[in-house]
Structure prediction request, 291 residues.
Amino acid sequence: MTDCIELHSCQVEGLRIQYREINSPSTDSTLTAARKPIVVLLHPSPRSSLMFEPWMKLLAPWFHVLAMDTPGYGGSDSLPQQPTSLSDYLPALNACLQKTIGAPCLLYGSATGAQLAIAYAHRYPDQIAHLFLDNAAHLDDHERQHLLAHYFPDLTPNDKRDHLKVAWQMARGMLTHFPWFENTPSHRISPREPSAAEIHAVMMEFLAAGPSYSAAYRAAMAHEKVEHVMALKIPTTVFRWEGSVLLKYIDKLLSFQLPDHIQTVNTPIDMKERYRIMTDHLRQCALRTSP
Prediction:
């Protein structure tokens, strides 16, 4: 048992998969670390499980928490072959979860992580007690084709260092507009200009993922369809974050008549309050799914 986040890795499917874990003593006298429900967190691209550390600490009193690095991101090896869909990520993810927890879990995913979680739920429904989708959206065919055609510039390093300029422009655009390449007032998502430090932090996430930064990103964007959500057979929550750059497309998803076992929870812009609401909701769902 520990009260801090630990960095681990496991070898599965010929890959090294890195994950963060915290399983601290519980503040609830009815729970031990061994009996706490397990929640697994899947991150957006091109980020890593590092982004979840603040939330992991808030979840820790009630949950055994694992945050995985998707293959090709953070400290996880890339898939041996260029992925063509999210299905290519599922065997390694499942093998890692079977090796580390070996039991059904609460599964949360944000953006790319949400689409990966949906695909995982279709392939391995018995491994999930409840599914939580954050920054999950619906794109129509025109929107998807437009984004796939322009969203992912080549960031392969070159002697002229052009890739650094492109990465900087992309990072700056992501902090001010959605999509980042549409520099018009109607696409603006932030009223202020980002600082150089903020742009640099985002740029470094793309550079850290390398020239293949778009692999899971593209696969998730191609998967961003309401029919994949409609087909889910397990209890599911869709978080509607008011601060999401995808809010317009989240609302498009929620405009459809989703099945009764899929519920919506609104979360505010403020990150502290957002984490509190999500944590409380996960706790309520864990109580309903506990044996």
User: Anything to note?
Assistant: Strands lie at 6-12, 15-22, 38-42, 64-68, 105-110, 128-134, 236-241, 262-267. The longest helix spans residues 271-289. Residues 153-213 form one domain.
